[in-house]
Amino acid sequence: MTVPPSAYAESVLDLVELIPPGRVMSYGMIAEYLRDRTGRGSARTVGTVMARYGGGVPWHRVVSSVGRLPPGHEDAARGRLEAEGVPFRGRNVDLAAAQWWPDA
DNA sequence: GGGGTGACCCAGT
DNA sequence: TACTGGGCCACCC
Question: CA A71, CA A9: separation in Å to the nearest integer?
Fold first, then answer.
């Protein structure tokens, strides 16, 4: 935390913290939501932000659009998600069942 | 001010 | 089913 996250990065982290246990959001969904709220961002940018500042939020609740887990952290993410009751489909998260969207 | 770097996404092969 | 190429955009040097 020697370096505070940028304004956009904070928006991403703030949203990720709202994701309830047992649910997940995809990078693309986060990007779309923040695009309405802040007017900027894209799936690619969200991924970059998570790679840099994801350590302070439940990063394991953020997956790709097909339920794929972040490279290099697949085992750690899988363990935490299973502990929260997130349904899996083979190696990936079952998005159809675990996908979440903020009410407001 | 210009260019490179990604924990991405989609469509086509 | 798995791989490739092009588009995408904030951040860092």
Answer: 20
